[in-house]
Amino acid sequence: MGIVVQKYGGSSLSDADAIKRVARRITEAKKAGNDVVVAVSAMGDSTDELLDLAAQVSPLPPARELDMLLTAGERISMALVAMAISDLGFTARSFTGSQAGVITDSVHGKAKIIDVTPGRIRGAIDEGHIVIVAGFQGVSQATKEITTLGRGGTDTTAVALAAALEADVCEIYTDVDGVFTADPRIVPSARKLDTVTYEEMLELAASGAKVLHLRSVEYARRHNIPIHVRSSFSTLEGTTVTGSINDPAREGSMEAPIIAGVAHDRSEAKITVVGVPDKVGEAAAIFTALADAQINIDMIVQNVSAAATNLTDISFTLPHSDGQTAMTTLHGLKNKVGFESLLYDEKIGKISLIGAGMRSHPGISAKFFTAMAEAGVNIGMISTSEIRISVIVEEDDVDAAVQAAHTAFDLDADEVEAVVYGGTGR
Amino acid sequence: MGIVVQKYGGSSLSDADAIKRVARRITEAKKAGNDVVVAVSAMGDSTDELLDLAAQVSPLPPARELDMLLTAGERISMALVAMAISDLGFTARSFTGSQAGVITDSVHGKAKIIDVTPGRIRGAIDEGHIVIVAGFQGVSQATKEITTLGRGGTDTTAVALAAALEADVCEIYTDVDGVFTADPRIVPSARKLDTVTYEEMLELAASGAKVLHLRSVEYARRHNIPIHVRSSFSTLEGTTVTGSINDPAREGSMEAPIIAGVAHDRSEAKITVVGVPDKVGEAAAIFTALADAQINIDMIVQNVSAAATNLTDISFTLPHSDGQTAMTTLHGLKNKVGFESLLYDEKIGKISLIGAGMRSHPGISAKFFTAMAEAGVNIGMISTSEIRISVIVEEDDVDAAVQAAHTAFDLDADEVEAVVYGGTGR
């Protein structure tokens, strides 16, 4: 018998009826002859409710206690799922992250999994039980403190359990049918992908596709665990994330698509540092200061300096949420670096074209930029990786840009099959 | 520096403001120079809400999973209390029952504490932290499963921590000012007791006084930990439970009151087995069957059998909640035992007079029964212990009986000082 690991997010566990539906789904996998291990998130909005309570009690709660508080959410949902399974005539055992052997570092609120020691889980499996594990949480190796894994934590828990148990597959149940060639809310003709490689999925996730969190995909790639993303509201096959773009078998395949999909992201802002003296060390001073302020920079563009003035402009993008801190940090550098002024723009969007095929097919960039131009979309910044081209456009142009790129690369389906595309919570 | 253990129940932790008030109270004890360890219950009605959720998911949830679910309640309150303390400029560390070393047997839902291994708590105290412990919960010695202690569990947690840490005192904060000579809702002139012995408190608790749970008092007596019951809504001194009725120093004291108080209990029902053949083994058959059905019997009275028929009646009291099961069990015995019929009466109440002094003062029973008679109260059953006399009366007579006994033994205060008398939750 093989082991199947499943993950259900908060939107699949919104109330008692949803929990019973999930329980039926879990027992079907068991009936099909599998050993089943399930990672669950907290029910619906319960994490937000706990955060509200914390905010009422303390404006800046200690991270250790916040983790202690939030981990109650998964504890509640895992016990309820186990009860619902028992009501269907199967036996289930729920385990906290700590009991399940999810060992992390000591960074409260965004701990990283160091190891999984699944002794108790294996024992429960061997006794014939379905195992339910609290997602999003673990216990720190050094201090034995309860930790949480941060955003996407339950996806990561599920993948880590699958790796430790050498599971056949990690099924991520969510409220969409899988990974699409674009957000179906923008492109109604977007197609669901049957498979996508780890590298492409990583680029999609990093470029704004919300269906899977980056960390869980990284973990799955490292341990070579196939992830099957599918809907908890239907029995349709979803998207399987598996295989590498560097797999020799894949290289020869005629079927591998050139472009996997078009992602977009409205969560970034752009800062331009105007009139920076074009000399050694100026850019380093700017980005060192931003790094010290814990700000994540995405794209960076530096113009060629005007010969007359020997001044240049440096633009970069960063999350909206870091905008205020970044501007304050940069203002503090004005005299030291000697730039002229700062511009801040939140009205931007990023469009990314992702596909392993672009390595072997010349002209992808040209086709992409031509499509943007024909759609009347002005490109502000460009960055590329081996299998991705991203452009920054005006926020109002995002929908048109996504649609244009999707059509230009023949990604449109013959029929509309999409459902609403949503977030995955954690 | 001494160690003070405090306990706050759900009614003292009903919302964010209540939690902040409790946090201030805790920090005052720390400021006064004590090391402080606090056991907390779940907030307000949150345990009932979790039970509701469980009932929606499964009509008969497995006990293991119910414990996993319910322990989330204390986890939430302990983290919030720790946050609120941190907001006042002190540091606090919260610990689950398991982390705090509360070791129990494996009986889910009503586990007994076997041992407390407070290594982590001591470590946190030594580092200067205020320690918050989830009440009502522990971890089983044999199976390492999460357990709950059942009713009165957080009181017991607090006393067990006090014993393990050799604390100076265990303060139980509740919504009443202390232990009273009678329920002030019935007897407005009831007085708060300054002190009461363990034995008297045990009898009061067993006889219906809800302010402290029996198990916690037993634990405190065994380990000789003084319990200070007081209000979390005022700074008044409450009642200290300490000392034995067998303490030689106490025997000589003129100040020891003869009667500690009058308790009442409306939670019992009475079953009468009519026309039982008066021969050896009949009573044993009846009560063995009830014991096998897990029914707790309180008082038992057997009439002298009528010479003509050689038949007797056996009456006993038991909790309302066991009434249905008991009647079903007894009906099943009818042919075997050969009794005539069964009578069931829920409209009863129990009045108990409790006091160490009744051992050395003759005539207490006579005075009690006389007071009942003068108040027009008919006595149905009588039982006594060394320091207690209990009578069963009609439910409508309970208030008059309590008031009459209270007055007869000169327990009335000169002035009314009572607040509303309530339950303690768990």
From TrEMBL, chains A, B:
This is Aspartokinase. Pfam families: AA_kinase, ACT_9. Catalyzes the phosphorylation of the beta-carboxyl group of aspartic acid with ATP to yield 4-phospho-L-aspartate, which is involved in the branched biosynthetic pathway leading to the biosynthesis of amino acids lysine, threonine, isoleucine and methionine. GO terms for cellular component: cytosol. It comes from Nocardioides immobilis. The lineage of its organism: Bacteria, Bacillati, Actinomycetota, Actinomycetes, Propionibacteriales. One of its GO terms (biological process) is threonine biosynthetic process. Pathway: Amino-acid biosynthesis; L-lysine biosynthesis via DAP pathway; (S)-tetrahydrodipicolinate from L-aspartate: step 1/4; Amino-acid biosynthesis; L-methionine biosynthesis via de novo pathway; L-homoserine from L-aspartate: step 1/3; Amino-acid biosynthesis; L-threonine biosynthesis; L-threonine from L-aspartate: step 1/5. InterPro entries: AceGlu_kinase-like_sf (IPR036393), ACT-like_dom_sf (IPR045865), ACT_Aspartokinase (IPR054352), ACT_dom (IPR002912), AKii-LysC-BS (IPR041740), Asp/Glu/Uridylate_kinase (IPR001048), Asp_kin_monofn (IPR005260), Asp_kinase (IPR001341). NCBIfam families: asp_kin_monofn, asp_kinases, PRK06635.1-1, PRK06635.1-2, PRK06635.1-4. Substrate binds at T47, E74. One of its GO terms (molecular function) is ATP binding. PANTHER family: ASPARTATE KINASE, ASPARTOKINASE.
